[in-house]
Amino acid sequence: MIRIQNISKRFGSDTALDNLSIQVKKGEFYSLLGPNGAGKTTCINIASGLLKANSGELYINGLSIKNDAISIKKKMGIVPQEIALYNDLTAYENLHFWGIINGVKKTILSKRIDETLLFLDLYEHRNKKIEAFSGGMKRRINIAAALLHQPEILFMDEPTVGIDPQSKFFTYEIFEKLHQQGKTIFYTSHNMEEVERLSDRIGIIDQGKLIAEGSMQELKDQLSMEESLEIKWEEKVSEKEIEIWLKESLTNYQIKNQTLLLSTKEPTKDMVKILQLFNKNNIQVQSAEVKKVNLEMIFLSLTGKKLRE
Amino acid sequence: MIKALIYKDLLQAFKDKKSIILSFILPIILIALFALVYGQFDSGTTDSAQNLIVCNEDHSALSHDLINALNNEIGLKIREEDQNTGRKMVLDGKYPALFLIGSGFADSLAQGKNSPLLFLYDEAKKLEMGLTQQALMSIVMPFLGEQGGKMQIHHFIDEKYAYDLPEEMINEIHQDIDKQFSGDNSNNSADSGLKTEALSVKENTPWGLIQAFAGTSIMMLLFSIASMGSALVQEREQGTLKRMLYSPLKPWNIIIARLLSSFIFALIQMSILVVFTFLVFQLDIFRHFAGFILMIVATAFAAAGIGIFIATIAKSQKQVESLSLIVIIVMSALGGSMIPLFIFPDFLKTIAHFTINYWSIDGFYKVLGRDVGFLSYAKNVGILFLYGGTSALLAILVFNKRLKKDF
Prior knowledge:
Helix content of chain A is 37%, strand content 28%. Chain A has helices at residues 40-47, 69-75, 91-101, 106-119, 135-147, 165-180, 192-198, 216-222, 239-246, 267-280, 295-303, and strands spanning 2-11, 14-24, 29-33, 55-60, 63-64, 76-79, 153-157, 184-189, 201-206, 209-214, 227-233, 253-256, 259-264, 285-291. The two termini of chain A are 33 Å apart. Chain B is built from 15 helices and 5 strands. Classes of the chains: A alpha/beta, B alpha/beta.
């Protein structure tokens, strides 16, 4: 459905996208994860025909963005990173405008607006000016404006930036419903939790290059990443004492700040084993935790830096 | 503490481009402009020669001498025409005044009678007439004083002694008289008999009101259009422009729509001003109603074009405000909305032709106060449409170029 093929984009001497290739299947929720300035928005701007790539091709449903931009635009809805709405107009007036701009016929537009507002739980606020809306409500109207023409493909550029956790979870539910409706979603974010929760597949982008791609499990497998255990014991027992009897039973562990860290493919089994060891040696455990591999770890492992740096 | 506050306030003031332009650049431009306009009067040497039509119906050597003298006056630009053409040119506003040397001028001067001289001026240019009349009188009065006195004495000598004295002696007397009058006789003067009349298609045409309506409404129109245009920059800043570009719209659609919305707003604004001036001051808008409507449409279109062009070249809201302020004030000052054009030096009069204020005010004078045909104001309408169209075209080009840089 979306085929980005060897796209490169330069702004002067800066390379925003470097030979980027991505394929998104029909009905798939694909997330492009990367830090600020990684090239996520540039990728959406090229896909929308707003920017021209220096090289490479981009196809949507087999149509080239270079030759069939207008036909492609009619099939896609884009939720920009900014809240691109008119504050001095009501929610209804805003949606009416964006509906017309995106080619919705006037005869069905009013009904379509009402349906969209109901879907986003904003119907009762339809006649309020946007300036009176909370951050979360503005974000939802921002999404609504991209849904009015019922696009097959949705490009969402960090659509949850700056909203409170409660609104965020409600917004996730909306995205999940859209996904269930069969929409193809291309999502960009630097929020790992939402990407993990929502995506079928994830692409990790850094400095304009796609450095890894796949489902969460595929990414873990690609990097041979394991879960980790963290066990903290009572302070009166020294790290040296622990290490004496621990090294006879375990490998691939670290001890740091009275805490045992262990990477493992069988976290439950290893946890039981370690707790039994501590019990046998009469050492009281203060806390024990299984740390699952998350995108942050994967990103850290791939780039050597934290996502929010 | 106070020092830090003062430093911070000044730092902010000097970083605010709008404040810099309003406080320093705009006053400098206006002082320079006004100095050029009014400064010429201080030095007494005005660069601004006044146009004058001269109709010579006497065709005597004396009337030709008078025209030569007028031609030598640097404060006047003379054009010779017959009376009918001259009158029409004044009534049409092409020339501000006409000086008629009537038939029998030389004879009446010789006989010491009042000369058949007539000064006709465009009633719409009363203020301007002061300068033209001053330049004209500075030539006519000494000329009449010198030539009239001389001719009267010649005439007296011929009548009284031609039959009693030998011809050589009479000739010698005439030569002495000529010699006597050939010196600096600029102080000689005579009762010129010069009559002055105002020319107007209709009595009591409210030229002041027309100037107030045309000059002010165009200036205010430019202000409101600039603010409409600045909304484009606001769209860019708040991301709605980008969102529009994501849609199937073409970039030029956005500019054309903005141009047309500004144009409609301008039409509404002009209509309200027209209704107000009509109801409260009884401005006669029906003299050339079709022409008047055309002028309103053309002016609104030109102003909308300028507004959209400024909005596309500006990078930020502050920049568009500063830029439009400069353009509007300078264009209004140069184009006749703030200062009457006749007192401008010639080069500024030429520059005035590049402003929409000039063409608009001139056009409104024609359709509201003169008896002119379509062709007379068609030029104004055409130029205003051309102005608006060219500005819009440039706006589209600049907008497309900027898009590549902005996103």
